[in-house]
Amino acid sequence: MENPKLNIVEAVNLALKQEMERDPSILIFGEDVGKDGGVFRVTDKLQDQFGEGRVFDSPLGESGIAGMAIGLAMYGFKPVVEVQFDGFYQQMLDQMLQHAARMRNRSRGRYSVPMVVRVPSGGGIKALEHHSESIETYVAHTPGLKVVYPSTPYDAKGLLLAAIRDPDPVIFMEPKRLYRAIKQEVPLEDYIVPIGVANVLQEGTDLTVIAWGGMVREVQKVIATLPHLSIELIDLRTISPFDEPAILASVQKTGRLVIIQEAPKMFGPGSEIAALVAEKALYSLKAPIQRVAAPDITVPYLKAEHWYIPDVFQIEQAIQAAMV
Amino acid sequence: MTQDIFSQFNPLEGKRFQVMDENGNISTDPTVAALRPAEVTDDFIKQAYEKMLFMKMADQKANNLQRTGRMGTYASIRGQEATQAGTALAMQRTDWLVPAFRELGVMWMHGVPMENMYVYWMGNEIGSLPPPDVNCIPISIAVGSQMLHAVGLGMGMKKKKETKVAVTFFGDGATSEGDFHEAMNCAGVFQPNTVFICQNNQWAISVPRSYQTKSVTIAQKAQAYGIPGIQVDGNDLIAMYVATKTAIDRARRGEGATLIEAYTYRLGDHTTSDDAKKYRDPAEVELWKPKDPMIRLQKYLAARNLWSQAYEDELVARYEKEIDVIVEKSQSVQYNPADIFDYTYAQLTPHLIEQRTEFLTRLEIQS
User: Fold this and answer.
1) Which string of DSSP letters, residue by residue, matches A143-154?
2) Does the annotation count A131 as an active-site position?
3) Is B80:B328 a contact under the CB 8 Å cutoff?
């Protein structure tokens, strides 16, 4: 059968469907994920195929969703739950941080919580307050959690399968602004994109740009306007544990680094990447590291959102600054 | 039939289920008498008393260990022995226990070795690794957060069409947490094989029960979630056994969750780091002392020539020796340094491998 061209929503849906056919322990629940198929339709028609026993709506409470998933995961199920919007992850942060992430350690390996939390993430869709947040810093700072953030349909399917099969809790961030923005051939057969491995989307020798999630496509737009530069673009794909060898190898090759992050600038993954390079590749650097990120302010409402999220102008400025 | 216990003792009608009063007398009320199952013989009660005495002594020993610097902060169960023994006796070995942190007695009776518990309170996570055939989730310190896990476990049991039950413990303070509401609400919606045991010991550190909720009882809250709730004299072993057995059997049949409010009293401080004299009227404690769950059992058994001071002394001497051995064993458990890294994930991540190596190298240099 020919491989279909899918967008990210369809790729995640396909991954869920195929993995549920393979693994009867998978349960999907969350707000409106049943008959409605989720507000973004990511779980569309899954209840029809797998029944209400495996795909069901939960009462409206994120802490409850996470807490029940923890119990089910400890009992041998594989919950793949949905948080309707990034901003509401904070209502389950307590359960994820205090229990999901700690149970293996607390019980010295007796109990574990293999679950996946799918989080539609980031801005760019002109939504309400709490619907455009970038939570990677919060989740990546929790020992015991893994955090992945694909930017393409191919990676969305492969990383989700890796996340579901992972023995530890994984936060699966989905870039809302790219949900239906790009189509890509997605293999029907089984494959995974391993957690912890970045993707060099484009090789280059002048400069390294690292981005993830909704920012990757913005960087690609800028690169297309700079044909005179040989830019290496790394899609981080996994925020935690991130691919240290890939970052160091690239910076050692190019000597210049630009980091693009949609989340607020301070204490985020970009800070950690910059610190890593300062610790382990400082002498490879030919210019100061440049970072483009959202300012450390509350996400503005939709009329001002475009000032907040890093844009192509800022990305190009940062690249030019790194080339001096 | 026992099924009727929840309607016969409706908390909204001001009823509290009690079988044995504080003088060790069994209720003559025919409704109550009809609820007492055949297995609750004098021998059953005597054996339960012996378990409760052991947990009371092990609890006292934990306090002493803390006072002499051999244990960290410890939360005493003194006064709540009947609540814990009654529930443990109603559980089967294959059931799952989801405790808070004031559950030394029920955890021990469910199969967690007392040595494990001491190792835990001495500050080593390895104490929370139960024997392979014992299903007990580690102690949950974050108040009220563990009830949802029991809902998830109970949902899993139901989905697998099993007859196991998840029993979770929490205090009166925990009922103010949002997760209590979410757990009760989800239990109403999904009808899991779950039993909620609220040890209402009247105090959440220094805050009395009346400051936690305007509800007259905690049990009545169950009705808002569409599940049965009952207030039980938590210092009455038989009442606790009968009520929890009924709730557990109900969950086992797949009929859903129940809330049991064990009305009891924290005779000690909140923990070894607390001094209840600062906020609690000593007169209140004096009022509760005669209701001690141990005393009424002694009276009951003595009236049947099954208890005497000599019998008590002999048990105490035997248990003291047993507990001393347990203390010695728990103190000899070494903390394996690499353990602090090795259970963060199923497999160490690259950055943890690096940090673990740095840590172990540092320990070697320092030693």
Assistant:
1) TT-EEE---SHH
2) yes
3) no
What is the share, in percent, of chain B residues with pLDDT greater than 70? 99
Fold topology of B2-335: Rossmann fold (3.40.50)
> What domains does chain A contain, in order, with CATH numbers?
7-185 (3.40.50.970), 199-322 (3.40.50.920)
Q: Is B348 part of the contact surface with chain A (CB cutoff 8 Å)?
A: no
Domain regions of chain B by residue span: 2-335, 339-367
Is the peptide bond prior to A241 cis by the omega test (within 30 degrees of 0)? yes
Residue A169, chain B, CB below 8 Å: the answer is: no
- Residues of chain A neighbouring B155 (CB-CB closer than 8 A): 68, 71-72
Distance CA A64, CA A102 (A): 17
At B87, is the secondary structure helix, strand, or coil?
helix
B53 vs B40, B57, B81, B124, CA distance in Å?
18, 6, 8, 26
Measured CA distances, B45 to B55, B237, B247 (Å):
15, 8, 20
State which H helix or E strand residue A116 sits in: strand A116-121
What pairing do the DSSP bridges indicate for beta strands A116-121 and A146-148? unpaired
CB A172 within 8 A of CB A160: yes
- Structure confidence at residue B61 as a pLDDT band (50, 70, 90): very high
Are the Cβ atoms of A74 and B149 closer than 8 angstroms? yes
Taking an 8 Å cut-off on Cβ atoms, the answer to whether A98 and B149 are in contact is no
Say which of B149, B160, B190 has its CB closest to residue A99.
B149
Q: How far is CA B1 from CA B36, B44, B184, in A?
A: 10, 21, 26
List chain B residues with CB under 8 Å of A108. 125-126, 128-129, 339, 343
Amino acid B267 reads L
Cβ of B349 within 8 Å of Cβ of A75? The answer is: no
Residue in the structure block whose two tokens are 């350690």: A105
Confidence of residue A304 (pLDDT cuts 50, 70, 90): very high
- DSSP assignment of A97-119 equals IIIITTHHHHTTTS-----EEEE
**Distance separating the N- and C-terminal Cα atoms of chain A:** 51
When pLDDT is cut at 50, 70 and 90, the band that residue B358 belongs to is very high
B211-228 residue pLDDT tens: 999 999 999 999 999 999
pLDDT exceeds 60 at position A95: yes
- Cβ(A232)–Cβ(A200) below 8 Å: yes
Rounded CA separation B13/B28 (Å):
20
pLDDT in tens, B241-254: 999 999 999 999 99
- Confidence class for position A1, pLDDT limits 50, 70, 90: confident
B170-183 per-position pLDDT tens digit: 999 999 999 999 99
Per-residue tokens: B45: 């009660």
